[in-house]
Specification:
Elements lengths: L1 H7 L1 H28 L4 H9 L10 H11 L3 H21 L3 H17 L6 H14 L9 H14 L14
Helix pairs in contact: 1-2, 2-5, 2-7, 3-4, 5-6, 6-7
Protein name: DoxX family membrane protein
InterPro entries: DoxX
Pfam family, one: DoxX
Length: 172
């Protein structure tokens, strides 16, 4: 019942738009600050690795191993991916373009930050992003998704004869 309300209701559409625009602005501005102000994830990654020790570690060992074995040696890659990802997620959410994908990628980043022992606003952002993902197209209806999703659906429907949807239908 709540799922269908999120996915179909006009009041939900407006509420989701407010949430989407707020999150988009937050992600975009944080990403832009990192893109223009110089960003180095090395300290953050090292700090997360340090939180894997002690009696009550804030970071799980498996995540710390990933950070130590992959993220820290490739910090240059993360110095580009994190700000660019934050900025693009923000633009997607702000404009309502590929909203579900943008919210899903925001969730991936928030989970990464949470796994690294940083709580901050990540938990509440994650909760909002879950609502956007569950709402699907309704979250971006007041945005460019209204046209983008229609265009993308049309692209895939043109190939209907090549890739039949009905499994009982035989390909000639």
């Amino acid at each position: 019942m709540f799922n269908s309300w999120l996915r179909e209701n006009k009041v939900a559409m407006w509420l989701l738009t407010v949430v989407r625009v707020y999150l988009g602005y937050e992600w975009m501005t944080h990403g832009l600050e990192k893109l223009t102000g110089g960003f180095d994830a090395g300290g953050f990654i090292s700090g997360a690795i340090a939180k894997t020790g002690g009696d009550h570690p804030a970071v799980q060992g498996w995540w710390g191993s990933f950070l130590e074995a992959f993220a820290l040696p490739n910090v240059g890659l993360f110095n580009v991916l994190i700000p660019l990802g934050e900025f693009l997620v923000g633009v997607g959410l702000l404009l309502g373009t590929l909203t579900t994908l943008a919210a899903l990628m925001a969730m991936v980043m928030n989970f990464s930050f949470l796994f690294s022992g940083t709580v901050s606003t990540n938990a509440i952002y994650l909760l909002f992003e879950i609502f956007l993902v569950v709402a699907g197209a309704n979250a971006g209806r007041i945005g460019f998704d209204r046209w983008v999703l229609r265009f993308l659906r049309g692209l895939f429907r043109k190939n209907k004869d090549t890739f039949p949807v009905d499994p009982s239908r035989k390909i000639a």
